[in-house]
Structure formats: structure tokens, C-alpha cells
Amino acid sequence: MRYLVFPGRDRIRRGAFVERSLLPVSAACVVANAIRECLATLSRSDVDLRLWPPAVPSGDGWDAILRGASVYVVRGTLADAALVLRPRDANALAAWLFGEPVAPEGDRALSPLESEITRRAVAAIAPTLSPVCGETRLEGRSGIDAVTYFELHVVTPVECCIGIALSREPASALAKRLERDVLKNAAIVASVELSLPPLSAERVAMLRAGDVIDAGGSAGLLRANGVPYARGGSGVAGERFAMRVGSFV
To answer: pTM value?
Structure first.
């Protein structure tokens, strides 16, 4: 979704449209907490993680996120997702689940056994995406047309990141259209401004309370709640001052 923003702190700022994710942070937090509990069960240890909130990466951003990463696609009834593990993060996760120290050469390719334990971990994590994807199933390594992304940074007992890309954002709710009958009894403050003929500075300076100025059929401007609404001529109808509507603003 494109939002209009005014970056900076100056009183006068240039506006710009930026991409922002519609995925609520609260939904990402629900997923993050479920994944934290899942990892704690798999590793039999306490897990502390941080959430990088949902964002819409640029084209270069997606390239950086996915470069060399293992991508596990999760199909859902509401949206598809991709669990993204970059090489260093995949190595750290596999070593952690094996109960071994993380190897210094963190960017190396996983062994077949490490690949299998990582896949099983991903399969265990997949159902935790149900708050944003609906009913899920793990499909394997592939790709999706992602539109939004958030990341979980595991801090303890090992440091690694798990990226989550989604193929769809929640649909923005459209407000119900207001029908005329709903507004027919709303109270509106109406006022009329008259454009008087020119007056000399001396005449204006001599004005006192109770003086009468001849409007002479001056043009009137009708305002509704302060907003210009119609123009027309002014005069008297019966015993009341009135304005004849000529055109709408």
C-alpha cells in the first residue's frame, strides 16, 4: 500500500509516496511468539527473539534477502508464505538443534543430515503461520510472489534470523457508504455573507452600533459549517431577509 508521508522536521516539507505493509504488527507478534514456543520445544531450551516489523522491501531489498538463501514455501488457504534462511542462519539453526557449537565457517553448504533436520524444523514451524496464512501445508523449496516481509531475530541461546515473506496482505476495509437518509437530520450551521457596495474609509470610520447600510441586492455566499456551498442574490421575501440560490460552489 502506498502512503503519503512528509519526511523531515521542517515546518514546510515535501510530500512523497512510500510503500508500507498493511500487515498489523500485532499479527506478526502472534506468529513470532508461536515460533518462539516451537523453537523452545524443539531445542528444549529457553528462546529469546526479536521482531523486525512488517515492511515492503524494494527490488534490491528482495534480492539481498533472498541471495543464496534457502526458501521453504508454505501454502495457506488465506495466503502463501516463504520461510527464508540465509546460509549463516541455516547453519546456526542446524548446529543449535544438533546441540553443537556453531561452526566458524557459517556460510558453508549444509550436509544432507543438517538439511534434513532443518527441513523438519521448518515443517514444525509452518503451522505457526496460521494466523496470517490460514490452514497451512509445507510444500518444499520454491518461490512465491511476495509482497510483504518481516523477520525474527533469535538472540539466545544462538543467534540466527528467520525471514517470513507473505504473498498477500490483509485487504483494507472499505467504509460503508453513507446514504442521504442517514444524514438528513444532521444539524448544519448555515450562514450568508453579503458583498456590500464599496464604502469610503470615512463612512466606515463613522459607523456606530445600530447604523443601517443599504445592501442594494448584493450578491450572497451561503456557507454550510463554514464551507462555501452556494451563491445567489440577496433581498427580502415577505418580512424576512432571504437569499435566492443561483449557483453552487
So the answer is: 0.61
